[in-house]
Amino acid sequence: MKRKILFIEDDVLMREIITDYFEKEQWEVFEAENGKLGLEIFEQTSVDLVVLDIMMPELDGWSVCRRIREKSVVPIIMITARSEDDDQIRGFELGADEYVTKPLSPRVLIARAAALMKRAEGTVGREGDTLIYGDLLVNRMAHTVSVEGYNINLSPKEYDLLNFLIKHYGKVLHREYILDAVWGYDYLGDLRTVDTHIKKLRAKLGDEGRHIITVIRSGYKFQVES
Question: Which residues have a Cβ under 8 Å from the Cβ of 192 and sit 6 or more positions away?
């Protein structure tokens, strides 16, 4: 079955180029020329990935990302001509999973999309076991996280981050190491990306977020303390 992507971009030529590349890779592409139309298509169509420009007419990418995140954890890649770190941090705070800047390479975008889908579908790092820490349960086979029996909706990147911390249980992980391992060595964002995702992950885990411990001037570790 083909994966489905919703590509929201007001540049006609870029839409044509990116769509052509994705279709050659056997993706089914839904196009939208502005944020308002993009949301309408999202409401009517089940997609596996959203690629979203920021500067658009009708409704900007920030607003679209926020509205999608209110009801879905579908992976989101944001693209923009701007490369400021604050823009990237804002995107991640709104729930984006990846962030690429223009001019972009279609092949790089497809590679990032494929990697993001593998993480979202649980085909990377899956060990087929269930981990329990207090009231926190991580089922790697089902790719789910629950607290006190209630499922927690984590974005693919938040899920990757939690599993990476658990994998290195009790070890202090520097922000640089976390950024390289979870986001990739070619990621151009800064260390605040890690802090932002840790903050969101703790909030979603509620009381069980206490297992993610800040180590001053170093980084973070996952550990259940008595």
Answer: 85, 89
SS3 for 215?
strand
| Closest to 158 in 3D by CA, of 187, 183, 175, 133 | 183
Calpha distance 170→128 (Å, rounded): 21
Please write the tens of the pLDDT for every residue from 108-135: 888 888 877 876 665 444 444 578 787 8
Q: How far apart are CA 221 and CA 214, in angstroms?
A: 7
Q: Are strands 98-101 and 76-80 parallel, antiparallel or unpaired?
A: parallel
Domains in the chain: ranges and CATH: 3-120 (3.40.50.2300), 130-222 (1.10.10.10)
Q: pLDDT per residue over 45-86, tens digit each? A: 999 999 999 888 888 888 999 899 888 878 899 887 765 666
3-class DSSP state of 22: helix
Specify the pTM: 0.60
Strand residues in 121-178 grouped as ranges (E): 130-133, 136-139, 144-147, 150-151, 173-174
Count of alpha carbons within 13 angstroms of residue 153, beta-carbon side = 8
Q: Which residues, other chains included, contact 122 with Cβ-Cβ below 8 Å and sequence gap of 6+? A: 140, 143
Strands (E), the chain: 3-8, 27-32, 49-53, 76-80, 98-101, 130-133, 136-139, 144-147, 150-151, 173-174, 212-215, 219-222
Q: Is 10 in a helix, a strand, or coil?
A: coil
